[in-house]
Amino acid sequence: xxxxxxxRGGTGQDASLVSTHxxxxxxxxxxxxxxxxxxxxxxxxxxxxxxxAAYAESRDVSTAVHRGLSTVMQDTxxxxxxxxxxxxxxxxxxxEAFRDPGAAWA
Length: 106
Known about the structure:
mainly alpha, rod-shaped
């Protein structure tokens, strides 16, 4: 043991949690994206056009940032799962190489 081992079971569980959190975060954005510009709530007659445009741009940028964050979280969960799988595959290959030391590995 080197102290650098991966807790594959724990990492796999954490990967699933990160992926689930990403899905929930993404789903929570849908109502925000569907809100609209808010003009119907006070019956704007065009006077607040500048403010409405600024609000719409702010909402769109914020939604895009949060969707990007959801993607990063999902990619992180996928990467964690991949790290566990690669570690399992490498250890299996190493164990096989020890059983057959005459086999070429490179």
